[in-house]
Amino acid sequence: MTAFDDLYYQSLRDVAFIEASLGNTAKAAAYDQAADHVRDAINANLLNPATGTYYLSESDHSTFAQDANALSVLFGVAPAGKVPGILSALKSLWGRHGSEPFSGTTYSNLISPYITAYEVEADYLAGDTSDAEHLMHLTWDQMIDPQNPFFTGTMWENIGPDGTATEARTSLAHGWASGPTPILTGYVLGVQPVKPGYQNFTVTPHPGSLRWAEGAVPTPYGRILVRWARDGHRFSLTIGVPAQTTASIGLPDGRHVTLAGGTQGTERAFAG
Length: 272
Fold this sequence. Notes:
With about 270 residues, the chain is of the alpha+beta class. The protein has seven helices and ten strands. The chain has helices at about 1-20, 25-45, 65-75, 85-90, 115-125, 130-140, 180-190; strands spanning about 95, 100, 190-195, 200-205, 210-220, 220-230, 235-240, 245-250, 255-260, 265-270. The strands form three sheets. Strands 3-4-8-9 form a four-stranded mixed sheet. Strands 5-6-7-10 form a four-stranded antiparallel sheet, with helices on one face. Strand 3 (about 190-195) and strand 4 (about 200-205) form a beta hairpin. The protein is globular, with a radius of gyration of 20 Å.
């Protein structure tokens, strides 16, 4: 299946990153080369040249799958020119309560918050903040509504297309459905690691429709503190960079700033 191939590809990239971080450059290069071969094979055999989207598998070319297409975008398997079309096609699966996992009726129609989080992240990664926010609202608003009869104060494993969670096996307190938590930190607040332990990290907020965000990310070097606010066209950001770390900051106006933590850490405000 295409989704499994995507996961194998990303696993190879992750191991390459680990080996490179340990100084094992030859091993890292070998894993990266293997990942390149897997990516090329996916695109040669599983990318529909007519639609620009991915097949479910080599044997099923008619079913459009959320996981196969969202993961291909998120992991960088999809060629850059195909990404907008894939994300647009994924919206054909959206309903009132989230995205169905497959087109047609051959497979399950249970909405998967676990897979949907990958699609939300793919939207953010592609700069489609509006659709990322919309899909989060469709899927997770019902879970945090205390008036919903299925409200538990936690996240649901899956959702029926009618918005119910009545499957006997469905967990209404499922960690795999909590994808918006790291997504809000990594994209809305904007903090993501570049090197292990956040020794180098990026801060690139995606404000979308929001007016402000504030949070802290714990690291072995201390807490990364980020506060940003928007008032009309004015955007302000304050960042606390721990000692022995370096931040690469991307501001909405296109400016890029590098800020080192120094011996005692650094806090700086930006406005534009």
